Inverse folding.
């Protein structure tokens, strides 16, 4: 059997075809796209037509590669960027461009939620999460307050992957994992939180699909697409999920003591849990996963966006960057980087800026700066990992994904900063692979031959042991002290109104 996995991200869409018996990726294709340009500061938007056009193009390209094996395709799964608001009217047309996860124009709306519900702690007690600018909830309130005509036309609210599923099947549904990223889901009960919904609009739940099990299929591929793609029969389309939820499946992070760290433009750190993990301080997001479990997660806004900025500043290629990292000792000679070029989500500092602290005549060099930037963004993730440990998550291994994990030197820095072994996957497909694996699992269940997801993952998700890095005790001790310094400096600057 073959399964199609689709990962629709902020910068591109990638599609793969997975042989679910051998675990081989038989074909892959990618299409890049951009954001709507020249919007006001903080506004990040995209036309959803970009996503479906990219899905159509990449699926067709993959199908052309496998030729006569097209008839073996039985299932499709979709991973999508979390939190984006896709508003539809009564004709099921997109009313306006989608506001994305990295849109920070909703600070006023987040403050309104916080004031109405007596502070972040009360929001956490109510539904398990605070309301952050990236979440969907403040975007809906923003639409109501800033574009009343568009809000008046609203009949359905979907998330990006839900919209792609709707385009594929004609069915409007929402599964627990991605729904939890709206900020409106009571993650303990996995149902919409009425007080939060009513604060936006007493009729809001009429616009939201009822949250459903992630094990269910969304539907069958619609006939027009089946014919256009040249398929003999319509594959099932699984519930799919958010990119982090699919990334968890695609890295085999569906068992205890495994943590995934993504070193992409932004960074994420997450681990599967059998019960909701609620952070009273609101720093760890209490998400559901896309296997009907839970996925405690932290997100940082600045990872490779910062390292790439530093690399380009000195006109280096990636090889020269690695050389500089290798030739500069851990700790960057006392130079510390606060990695808040795009503000920050964890800790929640949307208006923060980056800082190079501790400059001297000895460390004001390209090598020290690049090392400090790489260490700073990694310690940003370690800040979240420390909170994970305080909440009872005890990682024994961290699986690295994203562009930053291609660097052996950065992988070692991760092992030293995190204090546990790190390893990459043989496949770099991540969320696309996870979407294909979930699609296979959902297909089996829908056809009365249920399989265990853990069994599928062990067979289809393979570690690349050549990339394994063990922490160096001396460096790990140094980074523990630096993390305390970074956290303390951030808090002092924030208290003084400078972060």
């Amino acid at each position: 059997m073959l399964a199609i996995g689709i990962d629709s991200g902020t910068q591109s869409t990638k599609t793969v075809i997975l042989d679910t018996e051998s675990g081989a990726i038989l074909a892959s294709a990618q299409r890049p796209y951009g954001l709507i340009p020249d919007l006001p500061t903080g506004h990040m938007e995209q036309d959803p037509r970009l996503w479906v056009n990219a899905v159509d193009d990449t699926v067709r390209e993959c199908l052309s590669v496998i030729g006569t094996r097209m008839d073996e395709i039985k299932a499709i799964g979709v991973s999508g960027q979390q939190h984006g608001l896709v508003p539809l009217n009564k004709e099921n047309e997109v009313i306006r461009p989608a506001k994305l996860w990295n849109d920070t124009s909703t600070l006023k709306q987040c403050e309104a939620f916080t004031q109405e519900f007596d502070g972040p702690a009360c929001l956490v007690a109510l539904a398990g999460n605070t309301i952050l600018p990236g979440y969907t909830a403040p975007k809906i309130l923003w639409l109501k307050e800033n574009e009343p005509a568009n809000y008046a036309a609203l009949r359905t609210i979907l998330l990006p992957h839900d919209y792609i599923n709707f385009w594929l099947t004609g069915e409007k549904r929402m599964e627990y994992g991605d729904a939890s990223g709206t900020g409106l889901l009571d993650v303990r009960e996995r149902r919409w939180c009425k007080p939060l919904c009513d604060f936006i609009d007493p009729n809001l739940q009429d616009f939201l699909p009822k949250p459903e099990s992630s094990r269910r299929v969304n539907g069958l591929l619609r006939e027009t697409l089946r014919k256009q793609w040249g398929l003999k029969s319509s594959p099932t389309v699984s519930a799919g999920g958010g990119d982090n939820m699919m990334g968890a499946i695609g890295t085999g992070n569906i068992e205890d003591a495994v943590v995934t760290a993504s070193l992409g433009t932004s960074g994420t750190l997450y681990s599967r849990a059998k019960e909701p993990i609620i952070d009273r301080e609101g720093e760890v997001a209490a998400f559901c996963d896309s296997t009907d479990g839970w996925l405690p997660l932290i997100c940082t806004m600045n990872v490779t966006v910062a390292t790439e900025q530093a690399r380009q500043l000195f006109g280096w290629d990636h090889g020269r960057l690695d050389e500089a990292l290798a030739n500069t000792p851990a700790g960057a000679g006392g130079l510390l980087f606060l990695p808040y070029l795009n503000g920050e989500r964890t800790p929640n500092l949307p208006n923060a800026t980056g800082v190079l602290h501790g400059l001297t005549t000895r460390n004001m060099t390209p090598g020290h700066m690049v090392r400090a930037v790489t260490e700073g963004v990694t310690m940003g993730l370690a800040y979240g990992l420390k909170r994970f440990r305080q909440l009872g998550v005890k990682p024994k291994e961290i699986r690295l994904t994203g562009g930053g994990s291609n660097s052996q030197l950065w992988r070692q820095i991760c092992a030293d900063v995190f204090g546990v072994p790190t390893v990459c996957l043989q496949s770099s497909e991540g969320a696309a692979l996870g979407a294909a694996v979930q699609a296979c699992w959902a297909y089996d269940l829908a056809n009365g031959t249920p399989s265990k997801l853990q069994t599928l993952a062990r067979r289809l998700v393979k570690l690349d042991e050549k990339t394994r890095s063990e922490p160096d005790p001396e460096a790990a001790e140094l980074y523990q002290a630096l993390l305390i310094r970074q956290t303390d400096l951030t808090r002092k600057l924030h208290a003084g109104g400078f972060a």
Q: What stands out?
A: The radius of gyration is 22 Å. The chain has a mean pLDDT of 95. The domain at 1-82+159-168+216-251 is CATH 3.30.420.40 (Nucleotidyltransferase; domain 5). The chain has three domains: 1-82+159-168+216-251, 84-158+174-212, 252-429+462-499.
